[in-house]
Specification:
The complex is a heterodimer of chains A (265) and B (292).
Chain A (H helix, E strand, L loop, with lengths): L2 H10 L6 H8 L1 E5 L12 E8 L2 E8 L5 H6 L7 H16 L4 E7 L6 H5 L2 H13 L5 E9 L1 H5 L6 E5 L9 H9 L5 H7 L4 H6 L5 E3 L10 H21 L2 H13 L4 E2 L1
Parallel strand pairs in A: 3-4, 4-5, 5-6, 6-7
Antiparallel strand pairs in A: 1-2, 2-3
Chain B lengths: L22 H4 L9 E3 L6 E3 H4 L16 H8 L6 E3 L4 E2 L8 H12 L5 E8 L2 E8 L10 H16 L4 E7 L7 H20 L4 E10 H4 L8 E4 L5 E2 L3 H8 L10 H6 L5 E2 L2 H14 L8
Parallel strand pairs in B: 6-7, 7-8, 8-9, 8-10, 9-11
Antiparallel strand pairs in B: 1-2, 3-5, 5-6
């Protein structure tokens, strides 16, 4: 197994701590809020209000489970449109009350199903990208596990995007990539390497700004190690972002995503 | 005597072993070169000349796919189209094997540099920025060039206080450019956010097929979204959904009519009436409301 395939396996491990565990470890006074106010409450997206270092913040993230039963309830961390609409509702609420937003990403991708299409999966994701670009409050996005495709990007349009040491982020799953381009899902490990999905690769091409370390004994055996680093980094970064003039914050966020692309003229 | 005993042969269908065409090879020709062409909707043979310039099947009314230049020809007022960023072309950000060759082949096939042509023009006398995607170029997939050209077109429109019209056709993000392709979704959507903040009009026109990352970014963000009859529009590909839910999809799933029914497009407009409809919408948006 190459390094990228190892990271991929680690990012998907069923014992890997989930968004709710990170929220519990980093924040205080978390109150979970539910529903998109249009259709339903998607259990694959969790979110609410909490405090960080005594100050109110909005947190939202993709939720997976540790057991099959939990995963069925959470739809294996694949949100439906109502999940993305819940996310956006909470982020707009944060903007209204000048709360910074922290998002946690851990999804193989948006759900592919008939209902998801009927309720506009594409539109729901597009709206997240569009609205986050202009959201008048700081946003920090953290990849804690898997990051697959547009379904991950919907939560990852922040001012800063960070990733845990064994997180990953790709345009689609390496299995899907190998299947579409080489008609051979078995070449997933090779695809994972080519696709540059690991945190160091993504740091190098500017897709993320920071790598958060995991304890040697494994993230699930020592979540506090990573959570305490994250907490400290979040407090520091939010202090900087909250001092910024709103126009400057939005300009920098625009430039952050505007810069991507390699082409010749 | 085993002489007449039937042996247990299985007849293998060798076709199933043949490699499936890759996405860039497999899609139907948009406007084919022959005199007689087969309509992909009703399967009847139709005389190509008879279909110019709209390429609508005279037998069933099915809309053939159009290349960017053919689209521009039936959309813009004569001699008003002025191209932006016409020389921009792809590099190979991920070091994908043979990407340069794939690009060269697509350029040859489509006659354009990459999957979108952008510029300024007049439509029914109305000034507008226009972006037209082209399915002949790697199925209109969005990599750096498509994302950059569309973002620049949006920024041009914002800077010049102009509306923008985007015709979409796309299989989604361009896999060969990896994560950088995904970032184009955020980039184009952020551009549209600024255009919208400036109070400017964005018209999105969905043509067949518009899926994946394009449907999950600028295609779905129009102030008004029009679609051609029968155009497929959806986030997930049909085979992917069938594979996930393990059942066949209902007829008409994700087509323009389905999207109209579910509230994701404003109107379905036949190609013959598109230019006129766009011109009327552009004209209506040159007025500031509330002047009574």
């Amino acid at each position: 197994m190459n390094k990228a395939a190892e990271v991929l396996a680690a990012s998907r491990k069923i014992t890997r701590p989930t968004t709710l565990e990170f929220i519990d470890a980093i924040f205080d006074d978390f109150i979970e809020l539910h529903g998109d106010r249009h259709f339903a409450d998607d259990a694959a997206i969790v979110g609410g209000i909490a405090t960080l270092d005594g100050k109110a913040v909005t947190v939202v993230g993709v939720q997976k489970g540790h057991t099959t039963q939990e995963n069925i309830h959470r739809n294996f961390g694949s949100p439906n449109p109502e999940g993305y609409r819940k996310q956006m509702r909470l982020m707009k609420q944060a903007e209204k009350f000048h709360r910074p937003v922290i998002t946690f990403i851990n999804t193989s991708g948006a759900y592919c199903g008939i209902g998801a299409e009927e309720r506009g999966q594409g539109e729901a994701i597009a709206r997240c990208l569009f609205e986050t670009a202009g959201l008048k409050t700081p946003v920090i996005s953290i990849f804690i596990g898997e990051g697959g495709s547009g379904g991950a990007l919907a939560l990852a349009c922040g001012d800063k995007v960070w990733m845990l040491q064994n997180g990953m982020y790709a345009v689609l799953s390496p299995e899907g990539f190998a299947s579409i381009l080489w008609r051979s899902p078995a070449r997933a490990a090779e695809a994972a390497e080519l696709m540059k999905i690991t945190a160091p690769d993504l740091l190098a091409n500017g897709v993320i700004e920071k790598i958060i370390p995991e304890a040697k004994e494994g993230l699930e055996h020592n979540l506090d190690y990573t959570a305490s680093i994250l907490k400290e980094e979040l407090v520091k970064e939010l202090h900087t972002l909250c001092q910024m003039d709103m126009e400057e914050l939005l300009q920098k966020r625009y430039e952050r995503f505007r810069k991507f692309g390699e082409f010749a003229e | 005597m085993n002489l007449f005993k039937k042996k247990n042969y299985i007849i293998l269908d060798r076709r199933s072993e043949a490699p499936r065409p890759t996405p860039e090879e497999h899609e139907a020709p948009a406007v084919p070169d022959g005199m007689w062409v087969k309509c992909s909707h009703c399967k009847k043979l139709v005389y190509k000349k008879e279909m110019e310039p709209y390429y609508i099947c005279p037998k069933c009314g099915g809309h053939f796919r159009l290349g960017a230049m053919e689209r521009i020809a039936i959309t813009c007022d004569e001699n008003t189209f002025s191209e932006l960023d016409g020389t921009m072309h792809a590099k190979n950000p991920m070091g994908y094997p043979n990407y340069e060759k794939i690009i060269a082949k697509a350029q040859q096939k489509s006659g354009i540099q990459d999957g979108v042509v952008t510029g300024t023009c007049q439509i029914g006398g109305q000034d507008t920025v226009l972006a037209v995607m082209d399915g002949n170029f790697m199925m209109g997939s969005m990599g750096s060039v498509v994302g950059e050209k569309i973002t620049r077109a949006i920024e041009y429109a914002t800077a010049h206080q102009m509306p923008i019209v985007i015709f979409t056709v796309s299989g989604g993000a361009r896999m060969q450019e990896g994560i950088i392709s995904l970032m184009q979704m955020a980039k184009t959507s952020a551009g549209l956010n600024r255009h919208a903040e400036a109070g400017l009009f964005y018209l999105s026109v969905i043509t067949d097929p518009t899926t994946g990352g394009v449907s999950a970014s600028f295609a779905s963000l129009g102030d008004v979204i029009l679609a051609e009859p029968g155009a497929l529009m959806g986030f997930a590909g049909q085979r992917v959904i069938e594979g996930t839910i393990n059942e066949k999809l209902p007829p008409g799933f994700q087509r323009a009519e389905f999207q109209l029914e579910h509230g994701f497009v404003d109107a379905i407009v036949p190609r013959t009436q598109l230019k006129d409809t766009i011109a009327r919408l552009l004209a209506l948006h040159t007025q500031k409301g509330g002047g009574f």
